[in-house]
Design brief:
The complex is a heterodimer of chains A (about 90) and B (about 425). Chain A is of the alpha+beta class. Chain A has 2 helices and 3 strands, in the order H-E-H-E-E. Chain B starts with about 30 loop residues before the first helix and ends with a strand. Classes of the chains: A alpha+beta (about 90), B alpha+beta (about 425).
Chain lengths: ~90, ~425
Amino acid sequence: MEVSPGVSVMEAAINNAVPGIDADCGGFCSCATCHVFVNEQWLDKLPPLGPNEDAMLSLSPDRRENSRLSCQIPVVDALDGLVVTTPEFQF
Amino acid sequence: MTETTPQQSKWSMVGKDPQTIPIDQIDLSHPGIWHANEFLPFMARLREEDPVHYCAESAVGPYWSVTKYKDIMEVDTSPHIYSSEPTIGIVDTFEEFTLPAFISMDPPKHDEQRRVVQGVVAPANLKNLEGLIRSRVCEILDGLPLHEEFDWVERVSIELTTQMLATLFDFPFEDRAKLTFWSDVATAIPGGGIVATQEERWQAIQECMAYFTKLWNARVNAAPGNDLISMLAHGEATRNMPPMEYLGNVILLIVGGNDTTRNSISGGVVALNENPAEYDKLRKDRSLIPNMVSEIIRWQTPLAYMRRTAKVDTVLNGKQIKAGDKVVMWYASGNRDEEAIANANSFLIDRPNARQHLSFGFGLHRCMGNRLAEMQLRIVWEEIMKRFSFVEVVGEPERVYSSFVKGYTKLPVVLHPK
């Protein structure tokens, strides 16, 4: 997927009708329905996990080590080639 | 029927002109305007002229009303400023009548307790429940009379949500009507028709407690199961909880899974009858059902508000809020905020971004059962559309006497088969 910098990974997914992302809150880190699993090699290139994001993810039964909320990942040049997968359900 | 009719209370806003009443006198907390279905213009005026509104005098004391979508979002996502303790209801609690539950707790205790029960309403578990829910929906719909008037609230909305709750609790099926009663009692205002006095209300709650203590004792001595009571009895964070806390969480799950879904099932019928063009869209394209479900939940907003209490002095949209102030987020108003939602006052089953509504709240306290609720409503409408060309409302709906539970006590309908 080709995306220009300036949006979040969540917005990029929504704008391109990628299934598996609900984004109920519209990008305010307050619903946890844009949950993604980030491929290992990209993890340390992401902005650090914020306290709100951590708190929201902590309530997800599907959380893993590489869980992030895609609304909190900005599309930037350094993340060119980023690979994420979605959980079976957004909750 | 009711001892305190809205007209008798000096606090009721019923019949007052929302456009000319001095703004400082607008009080959304009294149940009168909700019961009489007159709340919308009062909320619209507050959004326009005084979006964070201080009501100095009311039956429930002074409080702030937050009426705009973005301000509600800010309050809901700032638990370090706006606490859910001691209660999320507008009425201040009395120690002896207080039931602790995670909806009225802050982190970290909230998070620990919620994690224990969250799994039962997670989508992975719901997948296993879908077949059972659908078969119960079919049975209820197939038993309804055709071409004659009946009460949709009693025969469909209540019956279905009660059966669902009994399933989630693995509650004795023949006693399931008790669940509905306890749910009504939990949010009842003494004198409002369900119970006459606070003592009567408390007595019913104690019966509920005795019943659920019996169930707890049975489950705690059995192997862990997938029902909510077993999860509480065996969960690490909950197995040693004091009895009142157990009861508080049980009541939370009963109310959370009952009133809300019940009133959304009724609300969808009301909304489609008031908007015949939308009903036609649905008849032509049933794939709109999942989107319509979100729109029904927004339009109905089955819980009108959640209350927070300021922990520190803070400023919200230009207003100085003091530590200890009561802050009420009117979801029912934010969901009609034209600045956040285009054509917010229209019911549009094909609305873009229909999922972006406030009815489930946002942040850590976001509705835990939201996927279960959506699934129930989706199945109900899929099965309704297979059977009936028109669920026709044939009389004025009667509404709940509450500014919290926004719903219907009676909805007369006639069914027209396909």
